Each structure stands twice: as C-alpha cells, then as structure tokens.
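Known limitations

Files may contain more than one protein. Parsers should not assume a single record per file. Below, a two-record file is shown to illustrate correct handling: read the sequence, read the token line, then continue until end of file.
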Amino acid sequence: MKSFPMFIKTTDRKVVVVGGGEQAAQKTRLLLKTDALIHIVAPELDDELQNLADAGCITQVPELTAEIFADAAMAFIATGCPPLDVSAHAVAKSVNCPVNVVDRPELCDLTTPALVDRDPIVIAIGSEGTSPVLTREIKTRLETQLPQNLGALAALAGRLRVSVARRIAQEDRRPFWAWVFKGEPRKMWEQGKERDASAMIKDAIASGAVPDTTTGGRVSLVGAGPGARDLMTLRAVQRLQEADVIYYDRLVDEEVLELARRDAERVFVGKHVGAHAWPQDQINRVIVAEAKKGRAVVRLKSGDPGIFGRAGEELDALNGAGIPVDIVPGVTAASAGAAAFGQPLTERGVSDTLVITTGRARDDAPTPDATRMIAPGTTAAYYMSVGEAARICADLTAHGVPADALVKVAMDVSKASEKLATCTLGTLEATLADMNCTGCAVITVTWPQALDISPSQHHQGVA
C-alpha cells in the first residue's frame, strides 16, 4: 500500500476548507456528516455555503493566513483556481497541516475515499487514485447489500454496552453480541421492526442470559423482477444474501442468482407457462419442510410474486404450517415493458384505467373472461396470453374494441433477448409470428378515451 487507511477523529477539531464555490461546497457537504468545526476560507461564499454560515453550521474566514491551519486536523483546498490552490497548499504545508487539494493528487497528503455511510458504521473504499470507476462500482454493490437502518442498530448496541457489561457474564458477552448482530434481532431490525428488536435485546439484557440462538426457519416469497438484475429491489437482494436455500423458476435469470450467497443451495423448480417440472403442491411441501429444518428459504419468482405468481397457494401452505413468511414485491412485466417502450401505462385523456389480466387459467378452470373490464379509457396488460392471442383478439373485437387499437408486445423484457413491437389489434397475430414469440411476453392493448382533444393536448396529457 502507498497509503495507510485510517479514520481521523473530528470531535472538537477544526477542519479547514479553502474556497467559496461549488468545489468547496462539495467537500463541505461531506464534512457536515461529521462533528468537525468547519472553517471556510473565502472572501465570498456561494448561496449554499452562505446559508450554512448564516445558520451557524460553518464559520467563514475572509482571509487566507497560516494561522488558520496551525491547529487544524486537516485542510481541503478547493478554490477552483489552480494557481490559488497551489498557493493555499504552500501556506498550509508551512505549518505542517495535512492537505487534500482537489484534482491535484501530487499535492495531496490525504485522499477522500468513496464512502458507504451507515453511521456509526462507515466503510471507506479507495484505489490510491488508480480506479475511481471501480471504487464507485464497489460502493454501489455495498450500498445494495447493507440496509439503510443498519447503523442505528450499531448505535443502539453502543448505548447498551454498559448495561451488557453489568448484567451479562464476561464469557457470555461475545455469544450475546453474536445473537444481536447475526440472530433474530438483526433480522427483525432489517425488516423494519426496530422497536420489537430493541425490546427483545433489552429483555435479554435484563434476564442476564444469552438467548437460545437456535432459530426457526422462515420463507420469503421474492420477486426477481422481469429479468435484469439491476431491477431487483434492495430487499430482494438482502433476502438472497440471507438464504440457505433458493427455489427458483425457469424465467429467473442466471445473473439474478449470482446475487445470492455463494453457499446457498439452489433448486430449479422449472415452472413456466404450460409446463411444470414441479407441481405446485410439491413446491408447497418442500418449502414448508425446509423451513421446519430451521433454514432461511427464498421462493424466487420472476416479476412480482403477487401478480400471477401463485403466491396465494404458497402462503396458505406456509400459514397453515405456522411458518413465518414475508413477501418481497418485484417489478412486474407490465411496468418493465412500458419502461422499455419509454412510455407510461396510463395517460390523462387516453387511458385512465389499468387492467392486469391473463388469457390462461388452471387446467381445471374455465377460460378467464379477460374482456369484462375493458372499456374506452383502458389499457389492459395481458400476461401468459401469447398462445391465446387469436381468441383474445376475437373477444376484444366482439366487445367493441376497434381493430386499430394500439397494441404493444414486450418479449423477454429487460433481458439480452428482449424484443419490442408495436402493432394494432388487427395485426397482433401476425406481429407475434414475425417476432417468433411463443411464450414469455406481456401484451398491452389500449382502448383510448372517446374524447375530442387536439393533438397538442394529447401530447401534454390534458384530459
């Protein structure tokens, strides 16, 4: 290493920023996360810095002198003027003040890393100036993996350390903190149940005993989104990182599975339209059985578990067995498809109602009436309906939908194999054939409102 990573205390210590413009404001925003005494050296401040000075958050020093640096923990030179930056650097170094000069690494004693801030947990990432793009990528990955409220749990632990020292035997303290940060309190905290987790920790301290760390199993029904892994929610990624075993469908992309913990067991259950490698009742049985072993189970579904994801049947089985379960929603195909087209699903003056429906049903159920909610001013998103396109077109036409109604087909949306097509109701079958689309697609049909509006009004979305 050419630089030694460390944290510098800022409590009751002065930090100097030279400059009154945007570069100085950027450094000041970072320093405001600390409890440093911030001094800004500049004859004039931009509006942001002036407001901070007026509020007493920073102290303005009009003139640059060596004295201002004499007792400072560090200084940032950020005037935006290269010659002035060099001069300020020389003044600071004359009294041996550690310095960071913006965009001048050869003049820097200190460099500012990329930060993942979960105060008081702070992760600093640096590359000694060699790969800033890589450090930002690492920061992004960590941001997705660490819950925003994690720092508050660490802060609570800090406030309770004296109580733990008084009530928990010394040999039991490490297991106690392992339970707090790896056991049920941590899980509850990350699920947003901070008050319950706090009460659990305090009750354990009051009892003076380390809780039983044997935890029961749980199941998460997780939406993987339409395919692209960067459309996964942060909560979905967290559940994958926690999982002992993952049951996933055919439509879940391999890149999504790469977000899981490396040693998690992955089980392909093969469900897709018209073919089921595993019957639903078998899936219900195995996720219940695995949870009863005390394992963290993720049932990973494409899209959103609550939209044609058969979540209801799995919830019934889990609730009946007394297994804790939560649902993590995902980006559904209709939303992803509209985004791929760069257009909304609803628009004032055109479509003020959105219907999500399907052309398929269970083998033992009647064909769903996918037209009953369709009316002027409606956009209908059809799932699992490519094979039923001819019947749906005939039903819609008989229902009064004009043959020139706008139709959009999003196939394998957000995946590398994505195909998009725009057509009319009358040409939908031919369009699907041209796309060689036989399965994984969402079809949206818009029956616009029968309103007399000008083209300019339509463009602006005026009803």
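...continuing to the second record:
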Amino acid sequence: MNWKKALKMGICGAATFALIAGGGITEAAAPAQQLPCYKTVTEVFDWGPSVSKLIVNLGTKINAKEVDKDTFKVYVRRVLPDGALTIAEATKIQNTIVTLGSEARDDSDLQGYREITNAYVSDADGNPVRNGNFVTIEMKVSPTDNLGAALNFDLKTFYNSFVKSEYTITQNKKLGNFKNLVIDNFKGDIRPTVDNFKFGNYKLGAAFGGSLGRGVSYALYEPAQDGNKHPLIVWLHGGGEGGNSSPALPIMGNKATALAEDNIQKYFGGAYVLAPQCPTVWMEGADAFADGKPLYEEVLISLINEMVAANPNIDTSRIYLGGDSNGGYMTLCLVRDYPGYFAAAFPVCEGLADSLITDSDLKNLSQTPLWFVAAKTDTTLPPDKYSVPTVQRLRNIGAEVYFTYFDDVHDTSGKYFKEDGAAYEYPGHWSWIYVYNDEVSTDINGKNIKLMEWLASQVRK
C-alpha cells in the first residue's frame, strides 16, 4: 500500500496558534512597555484547538460599563508553515483525498474578521472585574470555523501543523480616552490544561536501535505529589499528530488534554499522562504499512520504562494504555507483544486488521483486560475489518473484553448543529470524542460503568 495513501487511515484530529518551540510558545520580542498589547487563549475542543479569546492589555484602567461586544473589531491573518500546500494546490486535490475540514482551501480560511460573542473588562487571566487594565474578547468557535483554527491539516504530508495567527484589534466605538486604537502587538499564548504538561525528547540508544537510534518526543502530565503512588496513562495519537513539528500535537490535535482534567483525573486519584509523538506514524512497519510489525514499538516500551524509573511514585501495577486510530493499532501491538505488562488497555477506532491477528496473538491479547470503542459510520477503518471480529474472537476464548459500538459520532454539547437543526455530526472515525468527554459506558454485572471508572479499577495481577 502506498505510504501516503495509507496514512489517511490513521488520521485523527482537526484544526491555533503558533510559534511552538518544544511544545511551548515563543513570545514576541517587543519590549514589555509597549502597550496596548494582546495575548491569545487557545482552547482544545472536540474537533481540536481553536483561538477562543483575546486578552488585551490596555495599560490603563477601564470601567466595566465602557466595554461591550461592539467595542472592538477583530481581524486575523493565519500564516501557514513553510512548505505547506498553497491555496491553489489544495484546491486541485479537493475531491481526491480524505479531509479533516481544517485544511486551508480558500483565502477566507486564512484571513478575515472573527465573530465576537462577548467582551468585558477583566484581570490578566481573563476573569471579569468592575475596573481593570484588561479587556477579554470572546470569539465564536465551531467545528466548521477555520479562521479560529490553530492547526492546518496539510494534504501533502498528511500531518497537522500549528499555524501562526496574527491578530489586529481595532477600536470600533468610544472607549475612555482612546481614539482610533489599533492593537497588533502579540505577547504570547495561554493554553489551558496544555500548559500543565511538560515536553521532552527520548532517543533509543544505538545498543538497542542499532544505527537507527529511533526517538520520539512526548508530552507528560504529572499529578500533585502527595507521597502516594499514582497510575500512568499512556496515550498514543492518531496519524495526523505525527511528525516532528511540536510535541504538543499529540494532546492538542484532538482533545487528549481531557485525560489531565479533573473530571477524568478524579477516577484515578490523580494520574500521570504520557503522550509520545511518533516522527512518522505508529503504523509504519518493518516490511509494509500496517503490517503488524511496528518500527517504533521498542522505543515506546523503552520510553515507558524510563518514565517509570524516573518517577518512583508511578504505580507499576496500574499502567494503562490507549490510543486512537493509528495509535489504537500500536495499542494492540504493544498488548500483543508485551502480554500482562499493562493493567488494561482501551483501543479506539483501532487499525490492526483482524486478519493479521493469529490465534497465538489472540491468547497474548487476552492476558490484558480490553475495552474497544468504535462507531458504525467509520469509513476510514471500517470496524467490521478491525474491532468487531477481534472482539468476537476474544469473547469466544473467554477474554475480559468490552466493546462500545456507537451508531455515529455527533455533538453532545448541544452547541453545534447541522442545517436541519440536528446535532452536528463528525466523521464516523472520530469516536475518540466520546472517550475524551467521558461518555463511554457499558453494563457490567448489572451496573452501568464508565470506561474511565473501569480503567481506574484495573490492577495488574
């Protein structure tokens, strides 16, 4: 199978902002005294990251009554990374390839006015106050709004990349003593939850990897250090988050940041979250794409062992593994090749074809409790060739396996709709959305149990 053609099978994520260096933000070099200025706020949504707010530092106090959503106009210019497809090039292949909806195909995807939904006087963190030096501007975001998107999906490389979003904020009505105010002095980006992660690189030594010396970058979340042992959740990204542009991609390309948020962390009493980034794709094989012999398997297990060694309060009896699409493929490969190493695993829209799983492999898989997730409308990795037969075979040999099989993937927030008023529907491959939103559950011994609740209860025997 052609590598680039096959890569679309493992794509996940959709499409903020820029100047990413080692997972962090390089702030503008303008002197601190240059006011007014602004910061962007990049949040991660079901479809991926978007710039949702601007926090403007006016340098002088303003009363809350002086600001409303019509006080400013906001214009953005999205600058694609060097080497990205041009608009003309992307348009030519519009109907020949898979789409994530985040690829720029028209000038309107790259520049224009953002829709302002609210504006108010705030503190430096965006909290409303009666009087303050800052104004927070909230902007409309949605799965179909490319102007706010932080990523661009490149139809040439099949990777997501961060874009540089340059904002110009223009005074639109009376505001204190300001007249004709124009603000374009960028002073950095705030990324809720993302900024709680650390970023690094790991390389497998030549003694293990030969001349290849394979390496991966990673994002790591550490729970509060309270003297107790804490579990480790290893999350493996989809194909769109591969490459080497930023180790923040594995947690921002889609909403893997949710694994570090309170509503999921509460199940575990605080858990480490490790999200490695593959330089290519986890499905890259020794002989062919997705051949069941992944090239990056050894470096992954070595990285996990290194993390455990470096963090002695990781509970080695509670190491959990999950991944979506291309990452779900690697999840099953690791469970197959390291039977009993993980306390439990949760492959999502996984890509290890059932035809590649031998009876011997099946016995190895059965040594780890598994919970599969997929959707019937998945046309990228059709479950009838992947999850469905594998789950049935595991059940036939008495393995502990659960399977949540959704009819489709649609918005459950009540915020986004199709033209006919029905809930907005995402591509069927995106069943990871339900995982991040803690909406995966099944009946176990007469009780409805959520995936994360079940996961936290698993202990390696």
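Parsers that stop after the first record will miss the second one. For reference, the second record is described as follows. Residues 1-22, 24-32, 206-212 have pLDDT under 50 and may be disordered.
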